[in-house]
Q: What sequence folds into this?
């Protein structure tokens, strides 16, 4: 399957949800007026494009409609593709111009951070580059083991320490190793969640100081991994991490599983952070470089244009791969990892994510049960205290009633004498 086909298929849910509604809306209008743009803006917002970006798109469309003298609503589709392409352009190329180059990878747990690193490493190794992985996410359980599996499958070196080690020390070791081994690229897996934002910023700043000191002239990328299924929450995460880490680009994963692909536009336009790669499937080659033209075409072009682009790409690939037939009988030990193996790795990563979520839920449930047990015990102790107080009051009253003192007897005699009784 070619690049464009992967993008087209990966964006199917977003295309059906966003463009399907837009196409239906455009067909319902016979002229271009304010009502059309109001409905278009609303549909874009519903597609997770964001209010600011939706307004900007519509303003640019109005401008072009006026300049080109367009009156047919169906032409809006073509203009929309052009505007979106231009909005997304700029900064999407990954800078790996030095040897070694450094890529810091950050992101909250569960977004596919470690899996993305593995796929990036496999991509670079396939290009003939030597890759060193730094297992600097020393806080998350099993993160080091998971990255080690990816390193083995991708054919990359890995530098690691024990769980709980200083992440900056791991990065330092990885840089030293990369220099000695002549690595082209260092990819560092960093903590996605520390105790608080201050700790996260401090840890990333420390890692950056190490890199700047040891590799002052190296090309450096700071990539934030985002889960596309979170929609506008991905924009909020980008804001937070941009402040904490000075990110240079986004890798948007799981686009094939969501209708919220429009968030790409919001991230680029509102925050001016370029998208470098997108994940459109579970296979290792489903992590694709972001190409604005192909992205916009897959979302907004009509079916005929999409089919033509896919066919043209298939023909190019067929021509390019024709001479490679003689390599099919490559010895088993030299064959690259199969797609099934990568799918298995992705499945393991997804299973680990689910296990983490289950563990967190179990921990919350355990804490809730402990709190309920504590409250029940406290209520029982309070009840026993009240019962003891009640018994003590009863004993005091009974004692008071049964005791007879001389003073009490004198009072009885005096009361009887006054009433005329005989007290002799």
A:
């Amino acid at each position: 399957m070619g690049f464009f086909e992967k993008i087209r298929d990966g964006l199917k849910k977003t295309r059906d949800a966003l463009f399907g509604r837009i196409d239906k809306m455009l067909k319902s209008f016979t002229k271009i007026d304010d009502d059309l743009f109001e409905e278009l803006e609303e549909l874009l917002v519903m597609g997770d494009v964001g209010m600011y970006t939706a307004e900007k798109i519509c303003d640019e469309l109005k401008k072009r409609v006026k300049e080109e003298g367009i009156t047919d609503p169906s032409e809006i589709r073509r203009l929309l593709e052009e505007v979106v392409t231009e909005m997304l352009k700029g900064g999407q190329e990954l800078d790996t111009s030095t040897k070694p180059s450094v890529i810091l990878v950050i992101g909250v747990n569960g977004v596919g951070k470690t899996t993305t690193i593995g796929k990036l490493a496999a991509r670079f190794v396939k290009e003939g580059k030597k890759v060193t992985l730094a297992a600097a996410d020393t806080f998350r359980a099993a993160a080091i083991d998971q990255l080690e599996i990816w390193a083995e499958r991708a054919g990359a070196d890995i530098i690691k320490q024990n769980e709980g080690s200083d992440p900056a020390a791991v990065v330092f070791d990885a840089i030293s190793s990369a220099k000695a081994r002549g690595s082209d690229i260092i990819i560092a897996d960093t903590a996605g969640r520390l105790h608080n934002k201050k700790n996260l910023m401090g840890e990333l700043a420390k890692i950056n100081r190490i890199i700047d000191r040891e590799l002052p002239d190296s090309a450096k990328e700071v990539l934030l991994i985002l889960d596309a299924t979170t929609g506008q929450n991905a924009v909020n995460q980008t804001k937070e991490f941009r402040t904490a880490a000075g990110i240079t680009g986004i890798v948007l994963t799981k686009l094939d599983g969501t209708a919220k692909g429009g968030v790409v536009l919001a991230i680029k336009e509102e925050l001016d952070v370029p998208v470098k790669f997108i994940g459109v499937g579970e296979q290792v080659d489903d992590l694709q470089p972001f190409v604005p033209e192909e992205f916009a075409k897959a979302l907004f072009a009509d079916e005929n244009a999409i089919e033509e682009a896919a066919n043209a790409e298939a023909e190019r690939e067929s021509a390019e791969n024709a001479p490679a037939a003689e390599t099919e009988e490559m010895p088993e030990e030299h064959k690259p990892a199969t797609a099934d193996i990568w799918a298995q790795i992705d499945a393991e990563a997804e299973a680990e994510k689910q296990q983490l979520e289950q563990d967190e839920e179990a921990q919350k449930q355990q804490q809730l049960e402990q709190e309920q047990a504590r409250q029940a015990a406290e209520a029982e102790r309070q009840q026993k205290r009240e019962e003891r107080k009640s018994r003590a009051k009863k004993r005091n009253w009974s004692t008071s009633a049964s005791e007879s003192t001389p003073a009490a007897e004198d009072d009885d005699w005096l009361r009887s004498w006054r009433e005329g009784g005989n007290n002799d």
